[in-house]
Amino acid sequence: MVDEKKLQLTIDRNEIRHVVAKSVLARDSGQWKELGECYHPDAKLTSSWFSGTAKEFLKVVEETRDVRREGETQKHMTGNHWIEVSRNRAVAESDLILYQRRIIEGLELDFTTWSRRLHLMEKRDGDWKIWRRTAIYERDRMDPHNPEAVPEGFYSSMDLSKYPPQIRYHCWRNTLFGHPPSKNICLKGTEREKEVREEARNWIEGK
What confidence score (pLDDT) does residue 180 get? Predict the structure, then answer.
């Protein structure tokens, strides 16, 4: 006998995972229409450099789509999905690793940033979409593509003191390209993370 509840849960989790994956792939490939389809009209999101509505986020990323120069790349990789579903609400969390290559002062630099993405999902008119999305940052690193090309004094000239130690290279790079750290930036192990997770718990409990 088919367990209808388990079957529906499996369907819901599969659809939610699809939306999360679509939002990442559409972001990296510049498919803005498809990216917009992943969010509800009243959705909001917070990342290392942005905090606001999904509509505002879409406008910003589309306007800056040509900022990357030849030789620069970006790729978000997700995995380890954990999805809780309660009627028409869900909390979907996953690991995310961002790989970026940027050319700064003529140097090819590779950046890696580790975070968790916490999605508060809602099913409306039969479709799961993102209502809230928060990135919880863990750590980062920066590596030169060609270590021998790094000029003497390059690292010591970097002022990292104004950025969160966990993701100082990530924020330093973003600031150089016009995206200083968000005031609502969320870091692992902070009070802000506790607030975000409490919001997620209230969401899934229908509060």
Answer: 95
Calpha distance 95→117 (Å, rounded)? 6
Q: What pLDDT score does 93 carry?
A: 98
pLDDT for 2 equals: 67
| Cβ neighbourhood burial of 38 (10 Å; 0-12, 13-18, 19+) | buried
Query: Positive or negative CA dihedral for 35, 36, 40, 44?
Result: positive
Range of the domain at 131: 4-204
Total-model pTM: 0.94
Domain of residue 159, CATH code: 3.10.450.50
Structural domain count of the chain:
1
CB 137 within 8 A of CB 152: no
How far is residue 130 from each of residues 4, 37, 52, 59, measured CA to CA in Å?
25, 9, 14, 17
